[in-house]
Amino acid sequence: MTDTQTQRRPVIVGGDALRIADVVDVARHGAPVEIGPTALDAVRATRATIEALANDTVAHYGVSTGFGALATRHIPVDLRAQLQRSLIRSHAAGAGPEVEREVVRALMLLRIATLATGRTGVRDSTLAAYVALLNAGITPVVHEYGSLGCSGDLAPLSHCALALMGEGPVRDADGTLMEAGDALGAAGITPVELAEKEGLALINGTDGMLGMLCLAIADLRRLVTTADISAAMSVEGLLGTDDVFAADLQALRPQPGQARSAENMRKVLAESPIRDSHRDPEACTRVQDAYSLRCAPQVAGGVRDTVDHAARVAEWELAAAIDNPVVTVDGRVESNGNFHGAPVAYVLDFLAIVAADLASMSERRTDRFLDKARSNGLPPFLADDPGVDSGLMIAQYTQAAMVSEMKRLAVPASVDSIPSSAMQEDHVSMGWSAARKLRRSVDALSRVVAIELVAAARGLQLRAPLAASPASAAVIAALAETVRVDPGPDRFLAPDLDAAHEAVVSGTVVAAAETVTGPLH
């Protein structure tokens, strides 16, 4: 067990449904996992049902038959252990780069949670071994490609099951690549010899796509708040008005996310000397700001409401017990289609759409800062000596490249389907693919918003001697600890953008603003 694990509360499986925060705690922060006190009783009871079927002369899918299109073959008792091993070995067929450690840990936790429901028929010893594998920080190597998001995330989950058998490559708690047998031995874990039904139970779930959905929801909730901060700073730096964010105007369109984003922006803009400098309607001839300023709460609010919808879908899925066949509460063993990833795939695609739009608006605000015709008196590209210096010119290029990529990533994966398994699996969700592209989109969004923050911070300082709002000043001060945000001659820009990105993803930006505003939505 790592030091991080010992500092965090354990996550209990087999009791109440997991929460999104539980998934993040285990996947990212190494929180330990424990089996709930009543879970093992349910697991043992269901296992007894499966063992009673093992000697039945009637074929039972997953117990005494082949799989998928090969389910018509009845497997004799002496070949059933081989059947389970063969299932895992053959289905561990992923290809391409390794996926991230946090994704594999989330996937493992969610499969453990389903096993702990007592609906899958695994032995309690198999469940305990899987928990031990996760708690030891052993991460099976899972690859980018292999899941169609139907019949579960078969290939990714099979690579994890293979490690549980003591086979295949893994990374230990320190990230060292080694064989699973060696890693299990070092951790004192005995490899599992799978019994009837267990191979199928270990791989037939939506755990990979659901794990990535939970992680994306956590990230997007932080990012949309950060985007509210950056939008408010841009409104301030571009001499826009906060009048349009008034609560009574927002209430005329009672979208809940919009109201929360507008409130955030009002808090950040409060007591701004820059804003106060152009409140006189006779001195300020601008009637309306551009949409990227005026409509920021409408777009960010739509993102918020979409994330909330995705969270509801994730919570329903976290309460699920997905396997096929499944052992019902009254002891029946029934085939079903609950492994189809469509509900999760749809919201993964939806999130990629709103992330792209939020980034698109952020990039447009940055571009306004850099254009002397639209920045209301700021130097071209916020450069120290325009012509000698290029300022943030190419930072906007980088934003534009990422936004363009995000628009491509917003093309839904869930509308595609390629039949598989000799047409037995003739419609699939592509939910894993939707999740993989969403992760790239979320990363790009965090970088796009970071660049806007750098531009806004520099633009606000160029308004001197007028001062920024107290909240904006706090964000600028926090950024300045690692980023050069003050105007000055050009220097190597990439490290500053990387440092600003780290300030976004670590929560530093939100925390800095909240020292002035109090809690933001």
TrEMBL record:
Documented EC number(s): 4.3.1.3
Reaction(s) catalysed by this chain's protein: L-histidine = trans-urocanate + NH4(+)
Keyword line: Histidine metabolism, Lyase
Chief location: cytoplasm
Pathway involvement of the protein, from the record: Amino-acid degradation; L-histidine degradation into L-glutamate; N-formimidoyl-L-glutamate from L-histidine: step 1/3
Xref: SUPFAM superfamilies: L-aspartase-like
GO cellular component: cytoplasm
Top-tier EC class: lyase
Keyword Lyase applies: yes
PANTHER family associated with the record: HISTIDINE AMMONIA-LYASE
NCBIfam families recorded: hutH, PRK09367.1
Entry protein name: Histidine ammonia-lyase
Organism: Knoellia aerolata DSM 18566
Species classification: Bacteria, Bacillati, Actinomycetota, Actinomycetes, Micrococcales
